[in-house]
Amino acid sequence: MELKFSKVERKGPITIVTLSRPEVYNALHTDAHFELQKVFDDFSGDPEQWIAIVTGAGDKAFCAGNDLKWQAAGGKRGWDKGGFAGLTSRFDCDKPIIAAVNGVAMGGGFEIALACDLIIASENATFALPEPRVGLAALAGGLHRLPRQIGLKRAMGMILTARHVSAKEGHELGFVNEVVPQGEALNAALRWAETIAKNSPMSIRASKQAIQKGLGVSLEQAIEEQREYPAVKAMVASQDYIEGPKAFSEKRPPKWVGR
């Protein structure tokens, strides 16, 4: 597949996806959404790829959200089943995805980051859900993810005012995992990804799936049902499930195979 609006690089088990429309601050339109749907379908289905990082081209923007100029000029708006950037409605991916936010993350751009499992932000990063200022609403997950991640009152404070939030404040509010110097977001995200990759990918997928499914039910139900989750069952049946304890007892690093 020829990529026009994104770039994909693989470093071992890590896939790096770069949103690449720097002329419009990496804002996305319909064609970009469908391209990214395929990119993340490929990542999800590749057994050799364990972790993904999403970042933006250039040093000014992660993603400015929906391409409003495209829309205002009559461009068709829409995306595939995975949602905005192929990510915001992708609920069946149990592999970790990290947002390396290297600048502006507005509207849909912020919603992409919120849909990731971790957010690493450079000092110049700015976050907002400014849709009300242009007569829209953050319906690609932002209105639902932000309250779940930072609490109702804090989220209301951001959403109803449409105000901009710095990386430092995002860390204080709890939706940013780490703030790094400008230009270092991708390197820091790679450091996180490499640390995650030291663990069994089967265990990581089981953990992510158990968290996601468990948050939708009571604590009692989550604990009772977790062993029936597909990724948990796959972990228990995997070679990694045998390799981990064996490597520990033999006092050597484990050799994960991801199956």
Task: Please write out the topology.
Elements: E1 6-11, E2 14-19, H1 30-45, E3 51-56, E4 61-63, H2 68-72, E5 97-101, E6 104-106, H3 108-115, E7 118-122, E8 126-128, H4 142-150, H5 152-161, E9 165-166, H6 167-173, E10 178-180, H7 185-196, H8 201-214, H9 219-225, H10 230-236, H11 239-249
Parallel strand pairs: 2-3, 3-5, 4-6, 5-7, 6-8, 7-10
Antiparallel strand pairs: 1-2, 8-9
Helix pairs in contact: 3-4, 4-5, 8-10
Protein name: Enoyl-CoA hydratase/isomerase family protein
Organism: Bradyrhizobium diversitatis
Keywords: Lyase
Radius of gyration: 19 Å
**Count of individual beta strands:** 10
Major sheet attributes: 6 strands, mixed
Percentage of residues in helical conformation: 40-55%
What is the global morphology?
globular
Uncertain runs: none
Record the strand order, biggest sheet.
1-2-3-5-7-10
Share in β-strands: 15-25%
Number of helices: 11
- Secondary-structure element string: EEHEEHEEHEEHHEHEHHHHH
The helix/strand class is alpha/beta
Average pLDDT across residues?
Answer: 95
Query: What is the end-to-end distance?
Result: 27 Å
Descriptive account of the structure:
- The structure is a single chain.
- The chain has 11 helices and 10 strands.
- With 259 residues, it is of the alpha/beta class.
- β1 and β2 form a beta hairpin.
- The longest helix has 16 residues.
Any descriptors?
259 residues; alpha/beta; 6-stranded mixed β-sheet; 4-stranded mixed β-sheet; 11 helices; Enoyl-CoA hydratase/isomerase family protein; lyase
In short:
The chain is α/β, with parallel strands linked by helices and 259 residues long.
